[in-house]
């Protein structure tokens, strides 16, 4: 674990179960470590504390890409969404010394 910048001390990890009662009383039991154990994950969502002190998590639905690829070339892509057209052009510096000509060529190919 990383050390605290102010004190220079490492944090101590204590495993156990914490119960919250009436929004004021808290009990911690370090001997009870396997009750409702969940493996770690990273996901966008809403975490709420329920009335019995347990935590509830509701994941937000994943929104996939809504763009549709229309045309591809060696250095670019033309795609379309509900509202917009997108023109992506990627040119590697080592491939071309005169990128303006290559960019004009790729744009003409994509917009034909």
Write the layout of secondary structure elements.
Layout: E1 17-21, E2 25-29, E3 45-49, E4 55-59, E5 68-72, E6 76-80, E7 85-89, H1 99-110
Antiparallel strand pairs: 1-2, 3-4, 5-6, 6-7
Detailed description of the structure:
The protein is mainly beta and 112 residues long. It is 11% helix and 31% strand. The protein has a 3-stranded antiparallel beta sheet, with helices on one face. The protein has a two-stranded antiparallel sheet with strand order 1-2. The chain has a two-stranded antiparallel ribbon with strand order 3-4. The N and C termini lie far apart (57 Å).
Defining traits:
two-stranded antiparallel sheet, mainly beta, 112 residues, 7 strands, single chain, 3-stranded antiparallel β-sheet
Secondary-structure element series: EEEEEEEH
Broad shape: elongated
Can you tell me the residue ranges where pLDDT is under 50 for at least 5 consecutive residues?
none
Biggest sheet, open or closed, and with what strands and sense? Answer: 3 strands, antiparallel
Strand order of the largest sheet: 5-6-7
Give the radius of gyration: 27 Å
Strand proportion, as a percent range, falls in 25-35%
Please report the distance between the alpha carbons of the first and last residues.
57 Å
Structural class: mainly beta
Number of strand elements:
7
Report a brief summary of the structure.
With about 110 residues, the chain is mostly beta strands.
């Amino acid at each position: 674990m990383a050390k605290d910048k102010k004190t220079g001390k490492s944090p101590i990890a204590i495993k156990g179960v914490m119960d919250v009662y009436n929004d004021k009383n808290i009990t911690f039991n370090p001997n009870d470590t396997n009750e409702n154990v969940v493996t770690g994950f990273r996901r966008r969502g809403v975490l709420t504390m329920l009335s019995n002190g347990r935590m509830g998590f509701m994941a937000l639905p994943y929104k996939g890409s809504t763009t549709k690829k229309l045309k591809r070339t060696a250095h670019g892509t033309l795609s379309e969404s509900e509202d917009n057209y997108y023109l992506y052009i990627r040119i590697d510096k080592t491939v071309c010394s005169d990128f303006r000509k290559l960019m004009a060529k790729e744009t003409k190919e994509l917009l034909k």
